[in-house]
């Protein structure tokens, strides 16, 4: 049996009497009243706004996840009526629920991992769900913020892990690997197209992570979203930059299919700028445009000899490989560059049959932008790294490269303007020999012919100029983000840019002033201090099994093999849950299940258990001056009221079936007359 | 207290009482009391129609026990307005007030004493009556005339119907097929208990509902099939253009007009432009109101051809310059469509306050003094007022009265400015006058000029800060009283729930104390209970003779006497069914579309037929170049006028903000939530902007009642709308809160 509320949206005038009555009955001090029952929503453009009210109390889910994750086991669902109740004593006793402190400013409820994550994914929430074996729900929770959990489970630069407070005990949590596990553990993920609630359409140029991120956020807000992709494949650099052994094609494709299933339209082989222009998109009725063309343009150094046939550019090389094009590659490959792309070029060359693949770069070993993990794996595969070098010229014979003349560096650094300063060691000149040389020294966006002749401004660095707050370009209504704005960065950065852009595009389309209204986290990880419990037992970080070096270098098979279930749960249990309040994190409706602080009165809806004992209705039902509320068993309510909908949250699966049904409010048939002429 | 306890469970006593906090409602409360303290509040859970209380009374516990309540009598020790006070005894408070009343009376004459008590709690005993009786016994005082809320409406009703009791009971909405909510937002202002509930039911039974309002109100959003935004101060133009459509298409109920009205032809000549060469066409109105001509035409046809149709005229458009004309026009339109006196129709009279079912009684008690006061000596010898119609009381009322909105002007100008007296002493109760009167800054100036100010208050309001003596008055939870439900037909007892907190006293106790200190020994020979018994029995005699459950003893237990509700009460039903025996109380005995009384005045600003008159500070005023936005000051959901503004549970719900259209905000670089400065030549206030499509471009809304909160530079940060309004009076006394031009800019702290 499930007890629940019936809520007649057509009658609710949003008067908040239910909220105040609830506070009076339970003697709750002033605090966020919107948690209680009603939240007014406003949609549409003058003169056609539509006002509706959604209830937002505890939904007494059929399978309450808050009860699943509560470390103190304070939340239970009553067998006889399905009412979810909190044991206040147990709730406050729980020492493990929230141990984060800031610089003496008292307890806060954010964790270092989530504030560090550029997309602010609820890491503690999904880790807790994994530790309880709730893999589907964990993935759902990731999807609240992440459009590409599969991709990020493989290739995320995982800045969260470097801030993980578990490292004060032993080693940081394997957050990325757990993410991957939850993703892999859920098979047969199904999506249904989301309802379109807004008239306007948005055009997105580029199907990389930034473009997909904007598309994901905007389609969830009800807009029509169309992505224009120049290449024959979807995914941008994820498809043509990252090799299969790190990101198998089927993982990327599953992420993309999920997004397409929501209703995002993606047109491949459709470059903008040649046939169709930006202006054409506006003429076709797209009310906002997001440019996310990435940075695919690789460069060579301007040194003598680079015109030789066997001198390649990293991005083109990887693109050709990923698209299955034929490549002429020698036996001894030298990659110039210290980033992830350079490392990938060398590892790909090895897999294509090169006898030897080496990497040489300007940076010292410590300064190399590539991830330590990837460098280490490359070295395991036999790739030699030559750090701290500057390159003078490519040595050629008969039009073919045979090596690169290098000088050793004492030090190098980029100043704050991005200008390079080096000090070479005199007399250190030597030649690194190779028959194929691949430049992977940085990429820039290809903005012609897309922006040629338009009023959209470009920076000196050749990236698109945007307002750093809103990501709007110099043309109103045209936004840009991702590598095309920042230069080469990580997938997660592109996703964060997409989230920001989607927020402002939504405001733009609603006719609102953009302003500075995007709320990022107010604190950085280094300011977060935790008090690790003294009795916390050390536990080994679980390592993922990988293919042996022998198995790897002759194929593009994925190297990392993923956790087994037991391993994943063991690893997830290592989370110290520093920020606490897991119940609120996993609640699909952000309903508090606890007293805000010690001594606080009950804040969670319990159907007024004390009134039920006296055969009275919950106070809100008896208070509603519109008689818009009712309560009882869900089945009986359905019969009694008819014409109802069940409340569903987007994020959560049917497992969390909420115990509320409502009569929805629709737009009046004959809306507003002021448009008549 | 024991005699009015009702029921005991868990050692809790449940007191049945009534909330009528000037919120617009009037609802039943069941107050749980334990160990002498209110611990919870419930509302009606009896038979339908239940009179369920809204959020304001549900939060009353936080008001009753608010830490900032005034606890003791105090005297001012700092400058006026500074808010510095010192605790004194009641004896000292009484003797100081008494001494000052005597001194001012003897030095300047009793007319230099102004006493004003607003409604606050719409009750009978602890309201205006006690001090009125005392002051009349002590030589008299200058009384005020006029209603802040709806003087324009009352004037129009009296001029047209001969009475201002023009409302049907709310349940009659269920019989309407078309409801026009003209500037009417009962979802927020409640407008008598259950009004939104009846609207929802009317909609569910198939009534079409149209909202005409500068704002897409919560009522419009919940109930309306259609929203027609129009500019403030232009409502009469739209109504008159609707009349044009009805006349030119011959849709009027001519038989009704012939039988029940006088002067329709003169109105028709004006509408068609035969008078002045300007036909009042929908196109003419479009240019004025912003509503499309086609919409006006369609609405006019719909209203004229759908029967019964209720034109519910909110009182906000009446709170504009020439607001009288809007109400006159609405009544005329109701007559043209024959909707008066029929079930499901409407008189077109003002939407609140004009209910016969007892609505009149508290007013009589309040103004005349149900306690039986002698005639006010100050009024003697002054001729009758000449500035309003007879039915509004021009005969009975003396011209010594000053308009309720004009205290500041009267104090500052006095006799030299044409007022009947020089004013020196002000006694205020139930009002945060400075905050709520037009042009707050001028009121502050006037209050500084007075010799003595006594204020009865519960909190340190802006007005309280200007008092010389502060008298802590208790809340209705701490005293007994009598009230009625207006358009929900009941009357009942406000039953005391707890003993008065701290040293607070009731109105009657305070007046008695002052009387004693003044040496007026025969002021009060009855207890509170004796007074109330008398009031109840007097009322019962008129309205519910011998009816079971209507007696004092039963009311003490059940709080309410509900009138039998076999069918809704319909205003003017008697007149429409039998005009011969029940003529309208006008000089002609009919509905006066043309009023000879007004014609005799020969005042172009108060014409004998309803006309559209362009306001000052309208959109065409040259001042609009400097101050291009029109202000409306609506009711706030979480307040009853200025009451409840300090209650935490209510404050957290809705921040005080200025509603501004997105286009206007964008043009000024304002985002939702930004602090903005709203200003004109009269004042400025800084508050957050609510950028929304729900208000039409060119109009901003600052909900009235937020407490003025100046910083050290004197800039208000509380969002007090009246720092901006103009203290001009419409010709028949309509209070012009919604006739104000201003500008908004992003606030930059300097």
Characterization of this structure:
The complex is a heterodimer of chains A (677) and B (750). Chain A is α/β, with parallel strands linked by helices. Chain A has 4 domains: 3-95 and 586-663, Alpha-Beta Plaits, CATH 3.30.70.20; 112-190 and 522-572, Orthogonal Bundle (Fumarate Reductase Iron-sulfur Protein, Chain B, domain 2), CATH 1.10.1060; 201-296 and 445-509, FAD/NAD(P)-binding domain; 300-442, FAD/NAD(P)-binding domain (3-Layer(bba) Sandwich), CATH 3.50.50.60. Helices cover 28% and strands 17% of the residues of chain A. Chain B is α/β, with parallel strands linked by helices and 750 residues long. Chain B has 3 domains: 74-146 and 366-475 and 500-531, Rossmann fold, CATH 3.40.50.740; 151-351 and 572-601, Dimethylsulfoxide Reductase, domain 2, CATH 3.40.228.10; 622-746, Barwin-like endoglucanases, CATH 2.40.40. Helix content of chain B is 29%, strand content 16%. Chain B is built from 25 helices and 27 strands. In chain B, strand 10, helix 8 (218-223) and strand 11 (226-228) form a beta-alpha-beta unit. In chain B, helix 12 (282-289) crosses helix 13 (293-305) and helix 16 (407-413) packs across helix 18 (440-449). The radius of gyration of chain B is 25 Å and the shape is globular. The model of chain B is unreliable at 358-369 (pLDDT under 50). Chains A and B meet through helix 1 and helix 23 of A and strand 4, helix 7, helix 8, strand 11 and helix 13 of B.
């Amino acid at each position: 049996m499930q007890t629940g509320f019936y809520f007649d949206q057509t009658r609710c005038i949003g008067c908040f009497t239910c909220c105040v009555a609830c506070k009076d009955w339970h003697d709750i001090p002033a605090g966020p009243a919107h948690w209680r029952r009603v939240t007014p929503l406003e949609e549409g453009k003058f003169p056609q706004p539509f006002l509706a009210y959604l209830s937002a109390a505890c939904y007494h889910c059929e399978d309450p996840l808050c009860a699943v994750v509560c470390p103190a086991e304070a939340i239970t669902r009553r067998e006889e009526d399905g009412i979810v109740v909190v044991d206040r004593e147990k709730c406050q006793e729980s020492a493990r629920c929230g141990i984060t402190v800031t610089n003496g400013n008292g307890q806060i409820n954010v964790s270092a991992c989530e504030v560090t994550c550029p997309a602010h994914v609820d890491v503690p929430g999904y880790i807790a769900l994994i530790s309880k074996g709730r893999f589907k729900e964990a993935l759902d929770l990731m999807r609240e913020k992440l459009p590409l959990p599969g991709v990020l489970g493989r290739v995320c630069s995982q800045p969260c892990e470097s801030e993980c407070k578990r490292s004060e005990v032993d080693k940081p949590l394997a957050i990325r690997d757990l993410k991957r596990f939850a993703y892999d553990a859920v098979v047969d993920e199904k999506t249904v197209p989301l309802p379109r609630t807004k008239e306007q359409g948005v055009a997105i140029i580029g199907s990389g992570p930034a473009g997909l991120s904007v598309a994901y956020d905007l389609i969830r807000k009800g807009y029509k979203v169309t992505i224009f992709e120049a290449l024959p494949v979807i995914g941008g650099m994820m498809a043509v930059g990252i090799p299969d052994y790190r990101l198998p094609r089927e993982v990327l494709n599953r992420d993309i299919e999920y997004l397409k299933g929501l209703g995002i339209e993606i047109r491949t082989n459709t470059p903008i700028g040649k046939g169709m222009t930006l202006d054409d998109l506006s003429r076709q009725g797209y009310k906002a445009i997001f440019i996310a063309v990435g940075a695919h343009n690789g460069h060579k150094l301007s040194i003598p000899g680079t015109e030789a046939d066997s001198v390649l550019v990293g991005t083109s090389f990887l693109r050709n490989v990923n698209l299955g094009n034929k490549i002429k590659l020698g036996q001894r490959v030298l990659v110039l560059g210290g980033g992830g792309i350079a490392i990938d070029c060398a590892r790909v060359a090895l897999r294509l049959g090169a006898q030897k693949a080496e990497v040489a770069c300007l940076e010292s070993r410590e300064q190399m932008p590539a991830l330590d993990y990837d460098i280490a794996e490359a070295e395991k595969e036999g790739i030699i790294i030559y750090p701290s070098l500057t390159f003078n010229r490519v040595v050629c014979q008969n039009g073919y490269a045979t090596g690169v003349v290098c000088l050793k560096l004492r030090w190098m650094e980029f100043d704050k303007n991005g200008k390079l300063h080096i000090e070479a060691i005199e007399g250190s000149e030597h030649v690194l020999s190779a028959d194929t040389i691949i430049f992977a020294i940085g990429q820039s966006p290809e903005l012609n012919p897309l922006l040629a002749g338009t009023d959209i401004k470009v920076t000196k660095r050749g990236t698109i100029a945007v307002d750093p707050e809103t990501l709007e370009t110099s043309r109103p209504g045209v936004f840009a983000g991702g590598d095309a704005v920042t230069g080469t960065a990580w997938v997660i950065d592109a996703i964060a840019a997409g989230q920001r852009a989607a927020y402002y595009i939504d405001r733009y389309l609603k006719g609102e002033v953009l302003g500075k209204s995007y709320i990022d986290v107010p604190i950085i990880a280094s300011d977060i201090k935790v008090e690790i419990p003294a009795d916390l037992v050390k536990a080994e970080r679980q390592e993922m099994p990988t293919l042996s070096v022998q198995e790897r270098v002759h194929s593009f098979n994925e190297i990392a093999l993923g956790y087994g279930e037991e391993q994943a749960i063991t690893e997830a249990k290592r989370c110290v849950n520093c920020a606490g309040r897991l119940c609120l994190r996993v609640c699909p409706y952000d309903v508090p299940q606890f007293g805000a602080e010690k001594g606080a009165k009950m804040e969670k809806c319990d159907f007024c258990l004390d009134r039920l004992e006296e055969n009275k209705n919950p106070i809100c039902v008896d208070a509603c001056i519109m008689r818009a509320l009712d309560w009882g068993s869900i089945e009986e309510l359905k019969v009694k009221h008819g014409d109802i909908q069940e409340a569903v949250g987007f994020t959560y699966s049917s497992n969390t079936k909420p115990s509320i049904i409502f009569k929805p409010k629709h737009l009046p048939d004959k809306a507003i007359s002021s448009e008549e002429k | 207290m024991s005699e009015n306890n009702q029921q005991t469970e868990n050692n809790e006593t449940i007191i049945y009482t009534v909330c009528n906090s000037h919120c617009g409602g009037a609802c039943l409360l069941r107050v749980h009391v334990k160990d002498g303290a209110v611990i919870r509040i419930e509302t009606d859970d009896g038979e339908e129609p239940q009179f369920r209380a809204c959020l304001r009374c549900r939060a009353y516990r936080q008001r009753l026990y608010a830490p900032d309540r005034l606890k003791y009598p105090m005297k001012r020790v700092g400058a006026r307005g500074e808010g510095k006070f010192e605790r004194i005894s009641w004896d000292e408070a009484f003797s100081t007030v008494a001494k000052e009343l005597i001194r001012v009376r003897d030095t300047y004459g009793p007319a230099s004493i102004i006493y004003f008590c607003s409604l606050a709690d719409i009750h009978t005993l602890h309201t205006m009556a006690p001090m009125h009786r005392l002051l009349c016994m002590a030589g008299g005082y200058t009384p005020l005339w006029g209603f802040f809320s709806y003087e324009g409406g009352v004037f129009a009703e009296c001029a047209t119907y001969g009475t201002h009791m023009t409302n049907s009971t709310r349940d009659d909405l269920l019989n309407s097929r078309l409801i026009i909510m003209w500037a009417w937002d009962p979802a927020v202002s409640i407008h008598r208990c259950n009004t939104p509930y009846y609207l929802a039911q009317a909609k569910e039974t198939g009534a079409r509902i149209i909202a005409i309002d500068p704002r897409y109100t919560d009522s419009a959003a919940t109930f309306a099939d259609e929203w027609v935004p129009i500019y403030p101060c232009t409502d009469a133009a739209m109504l008159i253009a609707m009349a044009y459509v009805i006349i030119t298409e011959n849709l009027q109920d001519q038989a009704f007009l012939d039988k029940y009205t006088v002067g329709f032809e003169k109105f028709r000549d004006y509408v068609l432009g035969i008078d002045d060469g300007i036909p009042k066409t929908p196109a003419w109105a479009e240019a004025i109101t912003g509503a499309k001509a086609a919409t006006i035409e369609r609405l006019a046809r719909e209203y004229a051809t759908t029967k019964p149709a209720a034109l519910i005229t909110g009182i906000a458009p009446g709170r504009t310059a020439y607001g009288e004309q809007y109400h006159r026009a609405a009544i005329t339109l109701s007559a043209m469509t024959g909707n008066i006196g029929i079930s499901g129709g409407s008189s077109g009279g003002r939407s609140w306050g004009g209910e016969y079912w007892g609505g009149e009684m508290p007013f009589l008690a309040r103004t005349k003094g149900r306690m039986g006061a002698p005639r006010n000596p100050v009024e003697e010898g002054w001729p009758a007022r000449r500035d309003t119609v007879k039915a509004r009381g021009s005969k009975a009322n003396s011209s010594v009265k000053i308009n309720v909105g004009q205290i500041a002007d009267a104090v500052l100008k006095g006799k030299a400015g044409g007022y009947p007296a020089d004013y020196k002493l002000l006694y205020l109760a139930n009002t945060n006058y400075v905050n709520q009167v037009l042009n707050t800054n001028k009121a502050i100036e006037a209050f500084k000029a007075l010799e003595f100010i006594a204020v009865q208050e519960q909190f340190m309001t802006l007005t309280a800060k200007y008092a010389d003596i502060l008298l802590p008055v208790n809340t209705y939870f701490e005293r007994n009283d009598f009230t009625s439900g207006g358009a929900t037909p009941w009357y009942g007892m406000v039953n005391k729930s707890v003993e008065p907190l701290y040293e607070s006293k009731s109105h009657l106790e305070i007046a008695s104390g002052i009387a004693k200190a003044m040496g007026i020994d025969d002021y009060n020979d009855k207890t509170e209970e004796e007074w109330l018994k008398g009031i109840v029995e007097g009322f019962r005699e008129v309205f519910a003779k011998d009816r079971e459950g209507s007696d004092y003893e039963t009311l003490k237990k059940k709080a309410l006497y509900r009138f039998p509700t076999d069918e809704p009460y319909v205003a003017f039903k008697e007149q429409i069914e039998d005009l011969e025996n029940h003529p309208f109380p006008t000089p002609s005995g009919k509905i006066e579309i043309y009023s000879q009384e007004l014609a005799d005045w020969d005042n172009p600003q108060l014409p004998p037929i309803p006309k559209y008159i362009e306001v000052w500070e309208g959109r065409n005023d040259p001042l609009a170049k400097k101050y291009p936005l029109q202000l409306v000051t609506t009711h706030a959901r979480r307040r009853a006028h200025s009451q409840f503004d300090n209650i935490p549970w209510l404050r957290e719900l809705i921040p005080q903000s200025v509603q501004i259209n997105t286009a206007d905000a964008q043009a000024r670089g304002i985002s939702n939530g930004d602090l903005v400065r709203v200003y004109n030549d009269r004042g400025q206030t800084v508050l957050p902007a609510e950028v929304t499509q729900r208000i039409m471009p060119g109009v901003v809304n600052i909900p009235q009642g937020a407490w003025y909160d100046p910083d050290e530079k004197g800039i208000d940060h509380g969002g007090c709308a009246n720092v901006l309004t103009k203290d001009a009076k419409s010709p028949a006394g309509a209070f012009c809160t919604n006739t104000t031009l201003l500008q908004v800019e992003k606030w930059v702290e300097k």
